[in-house]
């Protein structure tokens, strides 16, 4: 527990100034985090075989291009070059399987890797977009995750009797999930009303949906860990695991925000 608390304090000392300052510093930080997340995916051994170094390198370049792409400037020449570059790199990730034996790197591995790149790239790109647009809206989205996760844990401890999806995460309960989503929705909605924009019923509904999506993201990454027989994605953050252990719900919430963008 002591190690976990110290790690959390260190993370906050590093992350808060970067998030507050924003701009290029935030983009660089998110870019680094996205690469570390992809590294954890590459290190999985049951979901795919060992990915060759050159394919890993191409994948990381492709991920960075997606994460740092500025879609609002979609009519620029640079956007066109970047967009085509991403398409080319994704094809290379798949096409490389033709030059390796079946026990080294397969087309199935390639499709798994392409999916991971697109998932992480889209989520982290959305994270940058939200922060560049509004610091308070970014905090609002993070607050959904923090409140939902925290109160789902304590609510489950206090009132949990019925397992949510035991074969994926045996400690999560239906009661904890409901309590987490309710408090996450109320708390984040209040923050939104006073620090972002006057609230509407659409925002409340969207907040509740994002809270649920965040929990689904947590469960999906838990299932990925269970299928690979690992407790954590890595030991990067002592007491907390890896990047994907900490950002599983946030990744899902960012994708959910992209889906529900018109409601805000």
Description:
By secondary structure, the chain is mainly alpha-helical. The protein folds into 2 domains: 1-133, no CATH class; 135-264, no CATH class. It is 73% helix and 0% strand. It is built from 9 helices and no strands. 35% of the residues are buried.
The percent of residues in helical segments reads over 70%
Largest sheet: none
Tell me how many strands there are. 0
Give the SSE string: HHHHHHHHH
Derived structural class: mainly alpha
Q: What distance separates the N and C termini?
A: 38 Å
Number of domains: 2
Which percent band covers the strand fraction?
Answer: under 5%
Radius of gyration: 19 Å
**What does the average pLDDT come to?**
91
List the uncertain runs: none
How does the overall form come out from the CA principal axes?
globular
| Helix count from the secondary structure assignment | 9
């Amino acid at each position: 527990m002591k190690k976990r608390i110290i790690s959390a304090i260190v993370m906050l000392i590093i992350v808060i100034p970067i998030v507050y300052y924003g701009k290029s510093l935030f983009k660089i930080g998110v870019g680094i985090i996205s690469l570390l997340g992809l590294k954890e995916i590459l290190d999985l051994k049951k979901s795919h075989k060992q990915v060759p170094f050159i394919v890993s390198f191409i994948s990381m370049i492709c991920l960075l291009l997606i994460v740092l792409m500025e879609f609002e400037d979609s009519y620029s020449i640079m956007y066109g070059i970047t967009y085509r570059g991403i398409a080319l790199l994704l094809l290379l990730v798949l096409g490389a399987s033709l030059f390796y034996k079946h026990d080294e790197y397969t087309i199935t591995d390639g499709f798994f890797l392409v999916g991971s790149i697109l998932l992480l790239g889209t989520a982290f790109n959305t994270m940058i977009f939200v922060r560049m647009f509004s610091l308070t809206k970014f905090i609002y989205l993070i607050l959904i995750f923090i409140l939902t996760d925290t109160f789902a844990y304590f609510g489950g401890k206090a009132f949990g009797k019925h397992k949510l999806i035991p074969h994926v995460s045996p400690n999560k309960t239906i009661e904890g999930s409901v309590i987490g989503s309710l408090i996450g929705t109320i708390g984040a909605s209040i923050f939104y009303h006073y620090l972002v924009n006057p609230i509407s019923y659409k925002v409340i509904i969207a907040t509740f949906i994002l809270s649920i999506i965040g929990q689904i993201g947590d469960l999906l990454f838990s299932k990925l860990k269970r299928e690979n027989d690992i407790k954590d994605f890595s030991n990067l953050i002592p007491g907390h695991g890896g990047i994907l252990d900490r950002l599983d719900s946030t990744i899902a919430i960012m994708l959910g925000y992209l889906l529900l963008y018109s409601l805000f």
